[in-house]
Specification:
By secondary structure, the protein is α+β, with helices and mostly antiparallel strands. It folds into 3 domains: 94 residues, PAS domain (Beta-Lactamase, 2-Layer Sandwich), CATH 3.30.450.20; 76 residues; 156 residues, Heat Shock Protein 90, CATH 3.30.565. It contains 9 helices and 12 strands. The strands form 3 sheets. Strands 2-1-5-4-3 form a 5-stranded antiparallel beta sheet. A hairpin with a 2-residue loop joins β9 and β10. α4 crosses α9, α6 packs parallel to α7 and α7 runs antiparallel to α9. It is elongated, with a radius of gyration of 26 Å. It starts with a strand and ends with a strand.
Length: 340
């Protein structure tokens, strides 16, 4: 059966789970047996209520929509049907994955998140920028009044740190300062440019493999912004691959495909560019997996946490979206951009 199915007793404990359910949850049948299945659902009370009302099999079947919690991957949105098994004290729980609904909800969440981030960052950056200039100017004036070389070292620290913060603020404001310049664009020219830049930075130990669909048509886009967006993602991937680069086993794949009948932000598109950046690194840490597109969120020591939010902003300017699926050994950033 391709349908996810599990048999439970009157207490809701798993008696049997089929292979499709094992695969979807990333858990073996033996791990599931004897465990209350309701705890893996986002709305456990619905299943528990259904099982309680099944005493004496006073119902034919019941169904509801909920989320199926998984140990490693994101939850699956599923349609659940609960059916009593005749002449037994058991019930059959069948789950159909609502993939389209899951994708749509995730995309809407990303779009709303990016919009909120943009407003927050812009306001915060402006609030920081104004007093920062005053701090730097005051430090320079103070330095001119000081004769002691040792004391001037302190003012230099203030000036240096003010400049560093100014650079950070400029990066936060960068997407809002540059106009959107559209021209005919070949996505593979963008990929090749990014590939050459990354290989210059990592000449040994890293393979950047091409997997292109050369039939993808040109489209109107801002070449500089898309290069920056893709470069941010690929550089992030290369940085987390440092151990594998040292051993010569690091690999990043740039894959382009045409996706058909794609919904982005509730709008249906007949065709869309699907650009994947896939690496064989350790994966995104679980504690930041849901927040990687938030500004200043990073899983790497010394990281600024600005690369992915800026990439998301640039792609959304093209009415597109960046998604991420990650597990140890494989992280896939998927860029979707509508095609004419």
């Amino acid at each position: 059966m391709s349908t996810l199915a599990v048999v439970v007793d009157q207490q809701g404990a798993v008696v049997f789970a089929n292979a499709a359910l094992e695969s979807a949850m990333g858990m073996s049948r033996r791990m599931l047996e004897g465990v209350e299945f309701a705890q893996y659902l986002a709305s456990p009370s619905l299943l528990r209520t259904g099982l309680q009302s099944s005493d004496g099999h006073g119902y034919a079947a019941m169904s509801f929509d909920t989320g199926l919690q998984r140990t490693v991957q994101e939850p699956l949105f599923v349609h659940v049907t609960l059916t009593p098994i005749e002449h037994t004290d058991l019930s059959l729980v069948e789950l159909w994955v609502l993939e389209q609904q899951a994708r749509q909800d995730r995309e809407e969440r990303l779009v709303e998140q990016a919009q909120a981030n943009k407003e927050l960052v812009r306001n915060l950056a402006h609030e920081i920028k104004n007093p920062l200039g005053g701090i730097r100017g005051a430090a320079q004036l103070l330095e001119m009044e000081l004769d002691s070389r040792e004391l001037k070292e302190y003012t230099q620290v203030i000036i240096h740190e003010a400049d560093r913060l100014q650079s950070l603020v400029d990066r936060l404001l960068a997407p809002h300062r540059h106009p959107h310049q559209l021209a005919d664009l070949n996505i593979h020219e963008v990929c090749e440019r990014v590939r050459s830049l990354v290989l210059l930075e990592y000449p040994q130990g890293l393979k950047v493999r091409r997997d292109y669909d050369i039939s993808i048509p040109e489209f109107k886009g801002d070449r500089a912004q898309l290069i920056q967006a893709l470069l941010n993602i690929v550089q992030n991937a290369a940085q987390v691959l440092s151990d594998k680069i040292a051993s010569g086993e690091a690999e990043i794949v740039l894959r382009t495909r045409v996706a058909r009948q794609v919904t982005i932000g509730r709008q249906r598109h007949r065709l869309a560019l699907e650009l994947h950046v896939i690496d064989n690194g350790p994966g995104v840490p679980d504690h930041i997996k849901e927040r990687i597109f938030y500004p200043l969120v990073t899983g790497r020591d010394g990281g600024s946490g600005l690369g992915l939010p800026l990439a998301q902003t640039f792609v959304q300017r093209h009415h597109g979206l960046i998604e991420c699926e990650s597990m140890p050994g494989r992280t896939d950033f998927r860029i979707l951009i509508p095609l004419p």
